[in-house]
Amino acid sequence: MVQEIQLSSADFIHPIFVHEGQDVTEIRTMPGVQRHTYASAVEQAQQAHALGIPAVILFGIPDHKDATGTQAYAAEGVVQQATRAIKAAVPEIAVIADTCLCEYTDHGHCGHLVQDGHQWTVDNDPSLELLARTAVSQADAGADIIAPSAMMDGQIAAIRSALDAAGHAQIPVMSYAVKYASAYYGPFREAAGSAPSVGDRASYQMNPVGGYREALHEARLDVEQGADFLMVKPALAYLDVLRLVRDEFDLPLVAYNVSGEYALVKAAAQAGYMDERRTVLETLGAMKRAGADTILTYHALDAARWLRDG
Questions:
Q1: Strand 229-233 and strand 174-179: pairing?
Q2: Among 273, 156, 137, which Cα is nearest to 220's?
Q3: What are the phi and psi torsion angles at 92 (to 5°)?
Q4: What does the alpha-carbon distance between residue 253 and residue 193 come to, in Å, rounded to a whole number?
Q5: Quick one: DSSP state of residue 207?
Q6: pLDDT in tens, the chain (310 residues)
């Protein structure tokens, strides 16, 4: 009756990896998570909806990758086709499109890569045009929310402007506003085939031991550019930052319970070191207590079942 924090399936976003293959394949680094076909992605969305989960987010894995990630903004791209299939079968569920290029480029970076002497770097401004094209293509396919994750400077303004010009003024933007260059992303990169082939992403993602001022600066820039949601990623090692952003801004706040956090719990549970159910629900409860309105988590289906079954 007096418990302050109430966790429910309505708090979750269920992530789905979708590829162009004909089979559902297991992801070695993320036990219990698979790469889905279009048909099985629809089944995942149906399961989520039946459990009371209000949204899914799609991560695409194309067969073909190139230097500029053309499949990210192709009308028949993997996320675009999966979006249409899910919205046709489960129109009530919100489809969030992850808007980035790293899964689609042959070099694994989140934008246009250029060489500067012996160094490789992402060229920010040309990357904005590609991200904006991707966002419009995803909205054209029926995505309900666009979620830019590339951490390019000015990406929210560029995407908002492009969506408005294309007749999608009603489509909200969920910004990966405070995104750290974290070791916790390792399992995802194998799942999505998005590990950088040269260099790393530290030049455009945030320093993991950076201070609070940087986090507030990044979030404030995205608010000023028109973001409708803010996200902190990862969540578990950055609960203090999550609380900071919650106290400073009034926009809906998303915590991303990332692949490494998921894999740690799975490995410990499989080894018999921890109780998976209790650990997951305690962790998700902590994220909500720290200020998250919504939690993007690979535990979503399991957690929703546990909460339903008491």
A1: parallel
A2: 156
A3: -75, -25
A4: 28
A5: P
A6: 899 999 999 999 999 999 998 999 999 999 999 999 999 999 999 999 999 999 999 999 998 888 778 888 899 999 999 999 999 999 999 999 999 888 888 766 666 667 777 777 777 888 899 999 999 999 999 999 999 988 888 999 999 999 999 999 999 999 999 999 999 998 987 887 656 555 555 666 788 998 899 999 999 999 999 999 999 999 999 999 999 999 999 999 999 999 999 999 999 999 999 999 999 999 999 999 999 999 999 999 999 999 999 8
Instruction: Map tokens 């250029």 to a residue.
Output: 114
Tokens standing for residue 73: 């903004």
Identify any residues that bridge with 296 across adjacent strands, giving them in sequence order. 13, 256
Token pair listed for 136: 């419009």
Q: Which of 65, 87, 179, 288 is an active site residue?
A: 179
Judge whether 65 counts as a catalytic residue.
no
- For residue 183, give Cα distances in angstroms to 37, 159, 207, 216: 28, 28, 11, 22
Residue from 65, 233, 266, 288 carrying the catalytic annotation: 233
What's the CA angle centered on 156, arms 155 and 158, to 5 degrees?
65
Alpha carbon distance 233, 293 (integer Å): 14
3-state secondary structure string, 276-304? HHHHHHHHHHHHHHCCCCEEEECCHHHHH
Phi, then psi, of 178 in degrees rounded to 5? -120, 90
Q: Which residues neighbour 240 within 8 Å (Cβ) at sequence distance 6 or greater?
A: 290
pTM for the predicted model, two decimal places: 0.94
87 is catalytic: no
Cα separation, 303 vs 278, in Å, equals: 10
